[in-house]
Amino acid sequence: MADALRRNNVKVIGDPGRPVVMFAHGFGCSQEAWSLVALRFESDHCVVLFDHVGAGGSDSSAYDRSKYDSLDGYATDVLEILEALDVTDVVFVGHSVSAMIGVLAANRDPSRFRGLVLVGPSPRYTDEDGYEGGFRREDIDAMLDALDANYLGWSQATAPVIMGRPDRPELGQRLTDSFCSIDPEIARHFARVTFLSDNRTDLPLVCVPTLVLQCREDAIAGESVGRYVHAAIRTSRFALLDATGHVPNLSAPDEVADQILAFVA
Amino acid sequence: MADALRRNNVKVIGDPGRPVVMFAHGFGCSQEAWSLVALRFESDHCVVLFDHVGAGGSDSSAYDRSKYDSLDGYATDVLEILEALDVTDVVFVGHSVSAMIGVLAANRDPSRFRGLVLVGPSPRYTDEDGYEGGFRREDIDAMLDALDANYLGWSQATAPVIMGRPDRPELGQRLTDSFCSIDPEIARHFARVTFLSDNRTDLPLVCVPTLVLQCREDAIAGESVGRYVHAAIRTSRFALLDATGHVPNLSAPDEVADQILAFVA
Prior knowledge:
By secondary structure, chain A is an alpha/beta fold.
């Protein structure tokens, strides 16, 4: 099971006897995306960072299309990492698609989790009768087609939008670089799994304290989606950040850290 | 005064005896940005399209730094075009910075205007005590510095964010191409004039019927800014579009055309 630690390039910072906070990155990112936030936890907490298989310093040879054909495969990895570290009472902080990965993991083994922090979560990106995910199915299909046809071009045009900070183009560039560092084959599959996922029925099953952190002017997960998540999780609180865009862990790390620290306390 | 028609590459489509609708483009664009919307007006209206000096097919040699050191210079051009065409009762549709240019023109000569349509307007981009423009002054300064240092790089990182359509990367690419086609020297100056403008005191002077069209998840002019504009213009209506991003004339032309047609009628 210690294989999980190597497979997911797990980094543990601080004494595991302290309160454990695990940070999980979103599509196109790696644990690097959490470094500025994690810094604020290193003196008083045990920080657990990792890369999803295919990202950052993970073992890409462990990428198994059938395992990762749904978000459940990623949730399995999270539980294996926690088991390998033998930690419980973990606060899991998940950005974007990792918010739903955390929901799935916490529902499978609530005993491991003290709480969830969902940053920019969306349980379903496509609209459906009575549900507004923000995207029409045909638009998601067109996006995935564009990604298939030219991953690097797609990344250059899309990562800055996801960042959503016209005033700080270097942030968009940083996210573009991160997108472009992923194996295109894996990125294509992970994008499909992410953007076609539907985890709405998993939300009411969450029984651990949960904090929903919502950004303004988020082109990926708009405010109504975040409020839907909050409404569907009985045990949740909702906080609207001042941060704009979809990646506040990079663009507003202090505001995100402040919110998580207050939740953990 | 017919010089104005050549200087601003004015195109008139349809009989000037019909109701006149003039479309004005925003920063980094040209009259091309209105083509899909304008199509919907060509059978029943007289459509007036033009390029601000420095953009599209305009006469860039007419770019005069002192004239265009404020938005008033651009408002002068609008009034000169209307005078050259000898038209009145014009509905002026302005996107982004051209929304404020329309406000200035209509305040200087209300007799020319039947109404204003302000698409994604912002009277001031920077925050100030008691006013939330969406950007801190230091962030705008950093953006302008990045633009000065590398206009093409800045355009590639910023235009897609302004478009705000992660599901349609080709739209972000189209806006990037448009940004990159502008003379960098003129773009630098126009960006400075645009992003450091403050036209809040001009809004209460508007006396013609006005429609404010606001997008969702707009990284440049957020909903609270659009609502500020609506609150400050007595004669205005406010409509929240389904469209996301800052350039609905390109990303949701039919929704924009429907709104303008209903307003004109």
